Amino acid sequence: MASVGFCPAGWKGARKTPNRNLLMTVSFVRDQPESVTQVTSSDDRLQAGIRHGSRCIPKLVRAGNLPGMGSFTEATTTAGLRDGVYESTLDTEWSLGENPHGGYMMALLTKAALTTACRTHPLAVSTHFLRSPEIGAVELHTEAVKRGRLYTTVHARMVQNGKSCVEATVTAGEISDAAHAWEAHQQPPITPFQECDEHRTPAENLLGHIDVRLDPRSTAFLRGETSGDEVRGWMQLTDGTDFDPLSLIVAVDLLPPTVFGLGHGGWCPTVELTYQLRGLPAPGPIATYTRCDALSADGWFNEDAAVYDARGRLVAQSRQLALSGNALNHR
């Protein structure tokens, strides 16, 4: 594992990000997957970077909103081109590294599907990531394949330069704000929000929009130690808005990979992710828990996420299939 002050290599290119209080340089080397890349900053609280699928997260303690950053609503704006087809622009501010965040792309595709379905909520979204699109214009192709009294099923594709990049099946309907009739488990323990450090960057990217606070009891891997198969953390949007059924899709795909706690590192690409909405989130920060049930000998692992709102109510779940960076390095 990378030690404190280092980011597991994964992305090509170098970024220099000026800020009133610090200058941070992060280099990502995609062609050298076994190497690690040092992250330097004038703030001595800079800690290890985190790489997860389309996410490379230089960890930094820094507060305050960043000027000029677009909201989630603005970043998921769509416009109709023709029946079932919409146009949109992948926003660099909702990306990490050089590529759009996977959860953000899921949310954008889901929004188009909801429009086609004439429904309010994404009850379930099953997504396959085929190739990573570039920042910029995309088309969202949707087709309603079932319209029922209680839900509508829509197939959706994100297309760029004539190629499908992301495909999803969206089950759309309406969900009430009433308490669950039954839950197998209550919200698991987590370090209080105020006692967790912020993990934000001054760069105009995804982590400028979401205040992520990792539970230090689940992140021993940041000190180069194994820490088990779970990661926990709090999140809140920095513009003062609250999470909703669409932005929760981003939240289930934002914590560090669980396999980091099992001694694995590097780029861990997500191949498939299924999201389920279980309730409408209350105002306030959300708590997200992820765990890994099995890591195969050839590097495939599952990652399950559960999201609880400020009332302690389960509001979202997900399961994804991903590939360990260690396995990629040896292929």
From TrEMBL:
Source species, domain of life: Bacteria
Protein name as annotated: Thioesterase family protein
Gene3D superfamilies registered for this protein in UniProt: Acyl-CoA thioesterase, double hotdog domain
Alphabetized InterPro entries for the sequence: ACOT8-like_C (IPR049450), Acyl-CoA_hotdog (IPR042171), HotDog_dom_sf (IPR029069), Sec_Metab_Biosynth-Assoc (IPR052389), TesB_ACOT8-like_N (IPR049449)
Species annotation: Saccharopolyspora aridisoli
Residues in Acyl-CoA thioesterase-like C-terminal domain copies: 198-323
Domain Acyl-CoA thioesterase-like N-terminal HotDog as annotated: residue spans: 91-172
